[in-house]
Amino acid sequence: MQFIYDPANLLAVAARENASYREADPFPHVVIDDFLRTDAAAALAAAIPSADSGLPWDRYAAEGFEMKLASSREDVLPETVCRALHELNAGPMLRFLEALTGIEHLLPDPHLLGGGVHLVGRGGHLGVHADFNWHPGLQAHRRINLLLYFNDHWDPAWGGDLELWSTDAARRVKSIAPVFNRAVIFNTRSDTFHGHPAPLATPEGVWRRSIAMYYYTTTRPEAEIREPHNTRYKGMHLP
Question: What is the mean pLDDT of residues 67-85?
């Protein structure tokens, strides 16, 4: 079977990048370009539904916090997209992520809670936040985010960079452009703040497109444990 990614190549990336991943500022992360096989990335980009496709999108419209469309519904998403979601949850991907991050015994999320396909259009944004830390269905701790972008010919003037912030949510440390076939992988804790808070300046009909995948473990280091919480936006975060 040929996956949408090359497992051997990803394991080589993990071996090369695992030390820098763990030492990255402001928290463990890596940016990997050409993450999927070129033909698979192109096919997946073509298959992601448009905002006006008639798909029953989940709409997030909390003024000042989040404005986007999302879907994790495999009963309505195209077959090409569903296959990609399954392969991003498959064993070779988990082995790569474990080798890269040093976090063992990772679990995929077949429920895709909060994940799947995300679209953000003109004026949309995602406030700086730390993610929910507990999956009640899996009874597991959220540990890793994988964000994969599908934006051809992205104009930097449109904004939309993923921002990584300091663990006290006081300052932006890094900005990452959401360009085609780029993956951003990072640890998720109650202090790993990130987002793209400035409203997008894209032309009408141009959307910032991504797939978000989250991974879990049944335990986590004691120093990272917090009471279960939902998304905590900057200004509403935990100590």
Answer: 96
What backbone torsions phi and psi does residue 93 show, to the nearest 5 degrees?
-70, -40
- Model confidence at 94: pLDDT above 50: yes
Domains and CATH numbers, the chain: 7-233 (2.60.120.620)
Task: Give CA–CA dist 120/126, Å, rounded.
Answer: 9
Closest CA to 184 of 118, 90, 107, 91: 118
CB atoms within 10 A of CB 154: 21
- Left, alpha or beta for 68 (phi > 0: left; psi -120 to 50: alpha)? beta
Q: What is the pTM of this model?
A: 0.96
Q: Are 144 and 95 in contact (CB under 8 A)?
A: no
Question: Helices (DSSP H) in 27-78: which residue ranges?
Answer: 38-47
Residues 111, 116, 121, 124: what is their CA dihedral angle, to the nearest 10 degrees? 50
As a residue count, the chain comes to: 239
**Banded pLDDT at 238 (limits 50, 70, 90):** very low
Rounded Cα distance between 134 and 83, Å, is: 26
